[in-house]
Amino acid sequence: MTGFSLLMAAASPSATSSPLATPSASPLPSIVPSLPIPSGTPAPVTLANPTLPALLLSGIVWIPLIVGLVLLLLPARSEAERARVRIGAIVGSGFVLVLAVLMWYGFADQGGTLAYEEQRAWLPQLGSSYHLGVDGVSLALLLLTSLLSLVAVLASSRVRERAGAYFALLLLFETGLNGVLAAVDYLLILLFWAMPVVAAFLLIAGWGGPGRSRAALKVLAFGLASTALLLVAVLILAGQSSPPTFDLLSLHNTVLHGPATGLLFWLFFAAFAILLPAVPLHTWFIDAVAEAGAPVAALIGGALPALAGYGLYRTVLGDFPADLHRMRGAILVLTLATLIWSGLSALGQDDLKRAIAFLAQSRSSLVLLAVVSAAPVALNGGVVLIVASGLGVALLLLTAGMIQERTGTHSVRALSGLAARLPRAAILYLVGGLGLLGLPGLAGFVGMVLVFLGAYPVDRTTTTIAILASALLSGGLVVTSSERIFFGPLPDGFARLRDLGTLELTYAVLLVAVIVLLGVFPTLLANDVNFGILSLLARGAG
Amino acid sequence: MTGVLLAARGPLETWSPTLMAQLALLLPALAALVVVTFTIDSRRATAVTAFLGTAGMLLCAGVMAAIEVAHPGHAETSFTFLQFFTGQSGTASEFGLNLGVVADPLGAVMLLALALTSLLVIVSALDSVRRADGFIRLVLVSLTATFAMAGVILSPNYFETLLFWMLLSASGYLLVGHWWGLPAAAAAARRAFLYLALGDALLLVAIVYAFFRFQDLNFGHLSLAYRGGKVSSNGLLILALLVLGAAVSKSAQLPLHAWLTDAVEAPAPAAALVLGPTLASSGVYLVARTYDLFHASPRALAVLAVVGGASAIMAAVWALGQRNLKHGLAFAAMSNLGLILLALGLGAFGGALLHLFTSVFAVALLFLAAGAVGAGLRTERLAEMGGLLRRMPVTGWTTLLAMASLCGIPPLAGSWSKGAIWASLLSPLKEPGPIALGLASLLLAAALTRLFAAAFLGETARRRRFEPARIQDAAGRVRTALILLAIPVVVAGVWALPLGGHGFLNVVRFPGLKPTPLTAAGVGLASLLGLLGAGIGWLGGRAWRWPEPVGAALESSFYLGHAVAAAARRGSGAAASGLGWIERRVLDGALAGFEEAGALAGRVPRRLRAGRAEQSSLGLLAGVVLVIALALLLVAWAARVTG
Q1: Is residue A225 part of a domain?
Q2: Is B23:B87 a contact under the CB 8 Å cutoff?
Q3: Phi-psi group of A45: left, alpha or beta (phi > 0 → left; psi -120 to 50 → alpha; rest → beta)
Q4: What is the ipTM of this complex?
Q5: Residue A156 belongs to what domain range?
Q6: Residue from A352, A338, A349, A354 nearest A284 by CA
Q7: Which of A186, A201, A217 should we substitute to test contact with B (largest number of B Cβ atoms within 10 Å)?
Q8: Which of A168, B345, B428, B579 has a CA between 20 and 30 Å from the CA of residue B335?
């Protein structure tokens, strides 16, 4: 650890670069940002002198909600009014994405301190403050959630009924996602954690498929259960600290005693395992993705596992490494069970979206493998894998949605030979599917390799089985579904289908472009993530 | 760029082999990018771009080969692709993955073969694949496959090999499934992908194992480390077997050969690429590149020899039973690759690689010719062919040359390369490998001759509604490709001679083995076996009709592939239904109680449908916030009470 502690000493608020800090070669030149964005300044911002850059995080978190409330109040009866609502939502989430990219651009992770930190008094009697901040891990995931939210908004152009409420809920979803990632105070995290659950419940119930009520209730049930577990865990954790505080960083340094750590570990783990989703708590996820409209399904399938992964990184890995180490065997079994269960179940699904949901679950189990291995190499890869999986799953689900819109069915058995009329959809599906499998040149490859490289020394059997199972089962799903849906002869009933239009191409190509960009330049994300992970592990050791 | 240039000096420095290697690697990719961006709508422009790309690659490969032959050396250059700190101290404090190229004689000759074959195959596609059949897409995927194979050839470390290996699998999938509108081709692509994916997974396991044991993935560093004693012989064996598994899947050897007949569902140029210089050769090349590993583990060498020998013999036997020309050729190609692996396992490094070099051209030629035959006759069944040597002279004679070369009939290239293999086995003679080699050579020669006799000799079979007079020979670019590919098939064997120290066997050698020069005895034995096998095959010729159960069993390679596919299908189907049952009954059943309560809450969705979404959502959100606020107040009160 000597090298690293030297690093920590060198990283003071005024230091913008240190000789050891930046890994040597990155394809992009390291440009000193021309924006006046401070990096790693922990000085609290008071209401007396709010500086623009310090509001970036608040902006990213609250702008969607504000825009959503405005849209809620707008009328949406005629097509023109609906278009206005749509454009408002696009502008809102697009602006948030731009902010996120600006933040990433100006981000210079030195020693793992939080960047863009904001702290304001909120509930001082409880020890809770309005504390936001990001490190490499949360910034990478913020980019993912902002992008997925924008794509979901773009893909929702066909929503007719109660468009105002729909987009408001989508933006509420985004607020929740961004808020969890940006918040550094447990109460805030709890508050934001509930938002995607509620939004998903209402979105599925109001705009979903035939089985939507049941699916929506399951989402609510499991989501609230996860929130409740988190609530109890946070309360216990806060209760252990003196003076009582809900601040993530301060609680991290609290020394915990006795059986409380074990209980806390399992509470946190269970809360996130529900969202991962891990077997046997996954049925809500599959039903939700199957019954939600394609854009909502893309958010659920792509972004919620990212939240779960983030939670596991921050709490389980960051705060309870000893318990993680002790429970390693059990969690490895859970990982394999999730991987194999989802892989096999995916092969037997007739509903395309259900199959994709199981595929998403397979990739999430690899993130769990990275977490349990607690190896820096695997953890770096895990973050990249979360981002890649989120993008790939979203792309697949949106393509499924496009197919459903045109053919009226999700059933794999009813579809055939679509590549003849929908070649662009076929290409998108293959890019998304092969990308999820880890095709080199697409985002998932580097993440997957790093996760396996790091996890292998920890448990060789599990990693070997995971490699073989994920290649064969997930690979089997992608090629069999492509073969059945896209290849082969085209039935007469589908002879008049129209291929993707401009709008659909826009967001699909956006996703593909990011997937390819991350595939060819993984350093775009990986460099920033590294120090966040190191400081996470270092705190855990302290 | 950290260069580790050890090789040529002087005027050769400007033309440094690593620079040539990098150019040769990037040109096909560049051509593919140009096609995607600019020429995706024009057949001609695509063809020109592809031609320029592969011709440039050939030029660079040629220069690189010339340099390596003149001054054999080992040069590497790489850059850091990904690097981060691991938080540990000492040497493990940094983790890095590198990408780069290695320039040595082995890579140079393989690259040369790849470039030449790829150029000719892609060019011939302009005449054999119509626009409606997806010519542009075929060229694009062929360029990608060429790029991926070049990457495998030039890769200096395991990570980069994996990267290009997986890219190669994907290219293979797209090549085999090119005519995706046909259910047979789509199914073939799926099966091929699964076998190739298994190979990818095995290579990935090999990599994580190698990194775990050696903390390094560079071939050069590892070649020193294998004998360093850091890893036990069992460890080396495991690593070698994993690498061999990956190679077996790509080269369609036993037991992962079932995707072979699927590969011929591709159009002729695609099949020529897949079974010629790209996928099929990549497995054998990987073994050659990691030969240090096998050499350090004698048991692994033995397994290599057994796998190669068994594949060679079985594939030749199955080839004898094929009733379809392309299937017969596919098994012949598999058998040939098995021969090369067997030779590698027996220590005939130089001879095996020379044979790989010469047979790449021959196999590509054979599949292009098969494509021409299929196009001319509109059938691929041997029973409906015959007498084509008269009617399609160019195709017939070039096929004859290629097959004869693979049989080992002098003075064609194959006889020299096989002779080189025998030369190193004969001094001294080691049992029982050479027996397998001899048997496989005999059977392969018989199978090839049978195919030739059935298709090209005798009388053209009469078919309804098909006039033999209408059969046209391969024309235009296909004809040019066939003739140009026949040239190395005939003359490349000359390279087996010492040539003043620049012969193939002197240049491409494994440091741990003494290169055995070509001997007359070796060539003589190879020729004898070839002629003998050819004689047997010719005597059988078209007259060979196996009794039905035997014939069917041979044709479907003893139903091994079918068995695996059926087992996979039934197994996964049963498992999926079982898991689904558990989900519905057990997991969801546990929620039954909640669902009863949910029936009450079920009024919420109804109210939503009635259009009170806004109120409900706000209300629900308010409710949740209220609950959390209540909980906080509770905690605050508790804190105050307890002080």
Answers
A1: yes
A2: no
A3: beta
A4: 0.87
A5: 54-541
A6: A354
A7: A217
A8: B428
Q: How many CB atoms lie under 10 A from the CB of residue B573? A: 13
Burial class (CB in 10 A: 0-12, 13-18, 19+), A180: buried
Of B291, B316, B405, give the one whose Cα is nearest residue B356: B405
CA B389, CA B395: separation in Å to the nearest integer? 8
State how many domains chain A has. 1
Name every residue whose Cβ is closer than 8 Å to that of residue B28 and which is 6 or more positions away in sequence: B53, B54, B57, B118, B143, B144, B146, B147, B150
pLDDT in tens, A420-439: 888 899 999 999 999 999 99
Of A190, A149, A427, A366, which Cα lies nearest the Cα of B624? A190
Please choose, from the candidates A174, A158, A148, the residue with its C-alpha nearest in 3D space to the C-alpha of residue A61: A174
Which regions in chain B score pLDDT beneath 50? 1-10, 607-616, 642-643
Averaged confidence pLDDT in chain B:
84
Please indicate whether residue A495 or residue B2 has the higher confidence score (pLDDT).
A495
The first and second tokens of residue A389, run together, are: 């999986």
Q: How distant is the Cα of B344 from the closest Cα of chain A, in angstroms?
A: 28
Q: Are A277 and A289 in contact (CB under 8 A)?
A: no
- Chain B, 570 to 609: residues with Cβ < 8 Å from chain A are 572-573, 575-577, 579-580, 583, 587-588, 591, 594-595, 598, 601-602, 604-605, 608-609
The domains of chain B are located at: 302-555, 558-601
DSSP state letters, B477-502: HHHHHHHHHHHHHHHGGGGGS-GGGT
Q: How far apart are CA B209 and CA B523, in angstroms?
A: 41
Q: How many CB atoms lie within 10 A of CB B233?
A: 12
The residue in chain B having the minimum alpha-carbon distance to the alpha carbon of residue A464 is: B205
Cβ separation of B80 and A25 shorter than 8 Å? Answer: yes
Domain presence at residue A167 = yes
Rounded CA-CA distance B378/B371 in Å is: 10
Contact status of B193 with chain A (Cβ, < 8 Å):
yes
B227: which DSSP letter?
A: G
Q: What is the pLDDT of residue B505?
A: 82
CA–CA dist A139, A133 (Å, integer): 9
Q: Is A165 on the interface with B (CB under 8 A)?
A: yes
Residues of chain B found within 8 Å of residue A446, distances taken between Cβ atoms: 82, 97
Average pLDDT for chain A: 84
First to last CA, chain B: 64
Q: Are A357 and A289 in contact (CB under 8 A)?
A: yes
CB B415 within 8 A of CB B491: no
Q: Which helix (H) or strand (E) holds A133?
A: strand A128-134
Which residues are within 8 A (CB) of B162 and not within 5 positions of it... i.e. 6 or more apart?
Answer: A440, A449, B200, B203, B204, B207
Integer CA distances (angstroms), B472 to B271, B385, B482, in order: 21, 13, 15
pLDDT in tens, A34-87: 333 334 444 444 443 344 456 888 889 999 999 999 998 888 788 888 888 999
Closest partner CB to A217 (pick from B205, B587, B601): B601
Residue A211 lies in a domain: yes
The edge-to-edge listing of strands for the beta sheet with B2-4 is B2-4, B75-85, B94-103
**Residue A13 predicted with pLDDT over 50:** no
Q: What is the three-class DSSP state of A98?
A: helix
- Determine the residue of chain B that is closest to A236 in CA distance: B635
CA distance B305 to chain A (A): 25
Answer yes or no: is A449 within a domain. yes
Task: Kindly report whether the peptide bond that precedes residue B411 is cis, defined as omega within 30 degrees of 0.
Answer: yes
Q: Find the mean pLDDT for residues A498-505.
A: 85
In tens, the pLDDT along B448-457 reads: 988 888 888 8
Q: Which helix (H) or strand (E) holds A398?
A: helix A376-407
The residue among B265, B283, B287 whose CA lies nearest residue B178 is: B265
